[in-house]
Amino acid sequence: MTTRASRGNAAPPRTGDLVRNPLGGSRETVESIVVAFVLALLFRSFEAEAFVIPTGSMAPTLMGRHRDLVCETCGEDFRVGCSKELREATCSLEPRAFVRQTRCPNCGAVERLTDASGNYRHDYPPFTGDRIIVEKFAYDFVEPARWDVVVFKYPEDARINYIKRLVGLPGETVSISGGDIWTHRGDDEPSIARKPPERLLAMLQCVHDSRHRPPAELAANWPPSWSDWSAEAATGPHWTSPDRGRSFQVSGDGTSQLRWRHCLPRDWNPTEPPAIPVEPALVGDFQPYNQDPEYVALHRSPRLGALLDGAHWVGDLAVEFDLQSRGDRGAVVLDLVEAGLRHECSFDLATGVATFTRDGVALATAPCGVRAAGRWRVVFANVDDELSLFVNGRRVQTDAATTWQRSIEEAVAARPVIGTAAIGSGEADDLAPVGITATNADLTVSDLRVLRDLYYVASGTQAALIGREPEEPMVSYPLAEDQFFMLGDNSSASKDGRAWGTPEEPIHHVDRRLLIGRALVVFWPHAVPTPWNVKVAERCGWELRLPCLPNFARMRFVR
To answer: Cis bond leading into 547, ω under 30°?
Structure first.
């Protein structure tokens, strides 16, 4: 898929993660005229250009051609990619490439995109990819920064535009291990590349949302993913749920523990819940966006087998929830388990001071504002060997670093700890990686979400990226001066610096001269029909309704 500007002298079609000019599709003619007019007014004094994201290599940061779904079992909203439904050369429909089904990332239910007769459902129409504004001359004045989302000329053919995230800078050696990015220069020891706060929050992906619990679970009286882990013999307080797993409350003197397990039923039937208990699974890199004919996300790790939901174990997690305190005493401890080690953040409700610890060793303290009676939105993250706390959307500044140093060899050797924890034991492992403990406090926690960090696949072969061969534990990419290393956020389905060129002559870098600019904003996510729309055309599961409006809720800065 080439840009419209290059179509006249086009090279042979290439697969991959391309960006193209927004005037490239006939379906978008009307809205493209409007967009062009607006851009002429707003940007005539600036050097900026608009592009469309056609594929899902940057999902969920940037959407390619996709469908917006709402799980019929639990109500979770998510997206599935459908860029493979178009022929690369002509952009015409390929009926055999339609996405037939996907799986909800929250409850595991299979969501079918066809009816009983095999016909495509029109309540899930396809949407084009995000339209973005690219600041073309940003790098004439400032150096490209790690984690920027960059548009550049494809190293194999400069007539083609690509978009990826910049993760490696000139002169570095970039290594990928355990889903993380490691860098070093010369003979220095590799160190993990940490994301700035605003990018960390933007790049987290939800794997559980307590607001969307399947009614079939409730009907079957299954225990919720969040459950009370207080010792059975304890006479102290226990966590209770007034709404059957969507929120939890506790009060009284003593200590009580609430923990989360990643319980995803298989082969969901909303009318006939499975009769056997649901076993917890490790958090993996499952991405519902990748449910297309060329990628199967339900593969299992040879090492972990059915314990893993996805191809790779993800240990970098975060927990987000509303915390309501009805008193001025007590303490709250949040903990995230990775490779059997506890990473904790404790709040003293009397003083409002938060304390960060790792495996029992204190790292830092900070006033966090969580004090006495009140209500706060809290995010606690263990990502890139760093603990981060956000209260009401703002990161808490600590009096010391909340980071730790480990070698890349230790990262390669890290393995999840499983099989030691049980309800009532007071212990936790990687099958129960998130906990909230209250001591002498009167609390309610609600709207709980568990999120994971992006997982970057290390292997440099395209076959390994889609799970057809084992992944290498660590792969390194050296960069010369004026060379940059690019990766897609949807790592398992992205053709990027790991897979350009040929096995005999790989191309792992992007030269400075090929950089076009930095992605700034999603100004037109996709169009949705108005309530007074009229169906204009229908063919092969694709229908066009006019007039349309942009999805204003998804207009955002690119992080």
So the answer is: yes
Q: Is 202 left (phi over 0), alpha (psi -120 to 50) or beta?
A: alpha
CA distances in angstroms from 30 to 35, 41, 359, 523, listed in the order given: 9, 17, 58, 16
Q: In three state form, how does the secondary structure of 17-70 look?
A: CEEECCCCCHHHHHHHHHHHHHHHHHHCCCCEEEEECCCCCCCCCCCCCEEEEE
User: How far apart, in Å, are the Cα atoms of 56 and each of 289, 373, 493?
Assistant: 7, 44, 8
Distance CA 150, CA 142 (A): 14
Closest CA to 204 of 285, 282, 312, 130: 285
CA distance 11 to 89: 10
- CA pair distance 378, 324, nearest whole angstrom: 10
What are the structural domains of the chain? 205-278+313-452 (2.60.120.560)
- pLDDT one-digit tens code per residue, 189-237: 999 999 999 999 999 999 999 998 877 776 666 667 898 888 655 677 8
Question: Beta 483-487 vs 474-478: how paired, if at all?
Answer: unpaired
For the record, the structure tokens of 465 come out as 């990226």
User: Could you tell me the maximum CA-CA distance found in the chain, to the nearest angstrom?
Assistant: 78
The DSSP call for residue 442 is -
| Torsions phi, psi for 335 (to 5 deg) | -140, 145
